[in-house]
Amino acid sequence: MDAYWQGLFDRYHLYLKLERSLSPASVEAYLRDVRRFLEHVLAERPGLRPPDIDLALLEGYLRELHDTGIALRTQARQVSGIRSFFGFLMLEKEITDNPALLLEVPRTGRRLPEVLTVEEIDRIEEAIDLSRPGGHRDRAIVEMMYGCGLRVSEVITLRISHLYRKEGYLRILGKGSKERLVPVNRRALHEVELYLTDRLQMETEPQHRDILFLNRRGHPLSRVYIFRMVKELARRAGIRKNISPHTFRHSFATHLMEGGADLRAIQQMLGHESIQTTEIYTHLDREYLRSTILDHHPRA
């Protein structure tokens, strides 16, 4: 790979470790698959750049893999790696359209996401040192992620003017610039109110004045900061699960499902375009019921 692609590849490596919170084995597998893909296409088309890669090129590469007779699970992992890499390119604004979204994945079964219990979430919040600067801010962030099911990108771009405290709603600008209204519970509002006492006294530049969560320099927080914060809090709380900020979103939806919430309502609150994306939480709910029976029924 030339210096340009190597630089992107190195940044992708950091993204997998810090933001995706994957295990070392998964990071290695993703990097190996993406490197294999890049070396293949660059050997045929030197000088290729991300916007030059279209769906036809991706499908041609996967057809060649299929013809070699590799297992469906390996093919699915290749698609997952390519999708992850192109999602990263979108985040980095290297491309404006993502051709990997239309790639078909061989069906090999579904891996359910990690979920925290309410007790574990309480332990994470209790691990936050409220005596230090940023303590109330960090607790408000955790409450917003869990209490409202927000993506990390939605947390760092949340605006004060989009928080309707009297009505108990947030206006969220989600994926594809689609807006949705999300209810905010009293506990999350309380934590935000405590943080706003200090936040509204902070000197900020004009372009940042409406951003809710800021660092000590008055600048918006980064995704990396929140990923690292969550990892550190989980460590302090003695939680061994491999979690990330997205785990709070999964926990939000799973606990709603366990409490009997309507699937369509959960879809709207999460901002899922398709109900099929939300249906994974029906699988999680069934797993919860099954584990409850196995743990507590005398015949289990």
Question: What does this 3D model show about the protein?
Answer:
The mean pLDDT is 85. The protein has a three-stranded antiparallel sheet. With 300 residues, the protein is mainly α. α1 runs antiparallel to α2 and α10 packs across α13. It is 56% helix and 4% strand. The longest helix is centred in the first third of the chain and has 21 residues, at 24-44. The protein folds into two domains: 3-102, DNA polymerase, domain 1 (Orthogonal Bundle); 118-294, hpI Integrase, Chain A (Orthogonal Bundle). The chain contains 13 helices and three strands; from the N terminus they run αααααααβββαααααα. The protein is globular and about 60 Å long. It has helices at residues 3-18, 24-44, 55-67, 72-91, 118-126, 135-148, 152-156, 186-199, 223-236, 245-258, 263-270, 275-278, 280-296; strands at residues 163-164, 169-173, 179-183.
Task: Work out the strand percent.
Answer: under 5%
Q: Looking at CATH, which topology of the largest domain would you report?
A: hpI Integrase, Chain A
Q: Indicate the overall shape.
A: globular
- The CATH class of the largest domain is identified as Mainly Alpha
- Helix/strand class: mainly alpha
Neighbour order of strands in the largest sheet: 1-2-3
> What letter string, H or E per element, gives the SSE order?
HHHHHHHEEEHHHHHH
CATH superfamily annotation of the largest domain? Intergrase catalytic core
Give the CATH architecture of the largest domain.
Answer: Orthogonal Bundle
SS summary, helix count: 13
- Give the beta-strand count: 3
Helix percent band: 55-70%
Uncertain residue ranges: none
User: pLDDT average, as an integer?
Assistant: 85
Largest sheet: 3 strands, antiparallel
- In total, how many domains does the architecture comprise? 2
Radius of gyration: 21 Å
